[in-house]
Amino acid sequence: MKQNYVLGGGITGLIWAYYNPSFTIITEAIGGQFKNNFSLGPRILEDNEFSRKLLTDLEIPIIPQNIHIGYQSDGEISNTADAKFLEKYYKKSRDEDYSLYRDETAMNCKKTQMDILIVDFPKLIELLIEKIGDKRIIYSKIYGIETDTKKIHIKRDKIDLVYDKIVSSIPIRAFYRIINRRVGGYRAKDMTYILLKPDFADLKNFDFVYCCGKTPYHRLTKTKDGIVAEVLGWKSEGNVRILFPNYVDFKCMPDIQIISGTLKKEFNEDIQFIGRYGRWDRKWKTEKVIEEAIKYG
What are 128-140's pLDDT values in tens digits? Predict the structure, then answer.
C-alpha cells in the first residue's frame, strides 16, 4: 500500500509530520543539529503567528524576547555594518565573492535586533516525538529511491516501501545521492563549531556577533553553555587546540554552510522539498516550515 513519507528526523521533518498525520518519518536518528552537546551557533525561533501557533498547539508557554545582533571589526563591536564589512564577512565565512551570491540572513539585512520566542529546543523535539508517536517513525537508513517505480529501499528488515508522496527535509545533496543522480550546482562547505568558556570574549549586550576581522572565527554566539565560535572548514582536534587552547568542546559538520544552488524543477508533485537544507534556501527558516506544514495539512 502506498503511503506518504517524510525523509529526515530533524526539527523540520518533525514539524511536518506533526501537522500532517498521513506522513511517516524515515530517519536514522531524531533531532538533527539539536542532538549535539551544545548549540551550533544561534538556534532561534523568530516571533510570528506560525511560531506562536506551534508553541500554543504543543502547550508550550509563549515567552517573547528581543535579542541584539552585533558586528565586530578590528576588535570593536557595534550595531552597524557597511558594505565593506559585508564583503569581508562573506569572504571569511564562505570563501566566496560577495557580489556573486546574496541571501537573506540577518547579517545581509543588517539587522540589529530580532524578536524571538524563548524555546528549549530539546524539549520541543521531545514533545513533537511524543505527539507523532513511535508508530509513525521508521528508524532506518535509506539506501536508494526509485522515482520511476516509487520505491524507497530501507535496510531495516531489507524491505521496500512504496510511496505516494515524499517530503524531503534532508540536504538536497544527500537526496541526489540516494536517487543515484549527479549532484550539480548545490555548493556547500564544511563548518566547525567550538564551545568556549563564557569569559572567552566580552560580547557586551549582543546575543551574537558577526566578525570580519583577523580572528579565525566569523561569528560568536552567547549560549547557556558558554560562547560558541564558528570557523569555516573542517578542523581536526589538533587544529582546534592550536586556535583555541582552552576550548571546551567542538563539532565538525559537513556541507552545512550553503554557498549556492537553486532548487531544480525536475521532480513530479509526488516529491516535495522543505527546510533550509532540503530547499537549499536560507529563507526557509523554522517559521517557514511551520507555515508550509500547516497550509499543506
Answer: 999 999 999 999 9
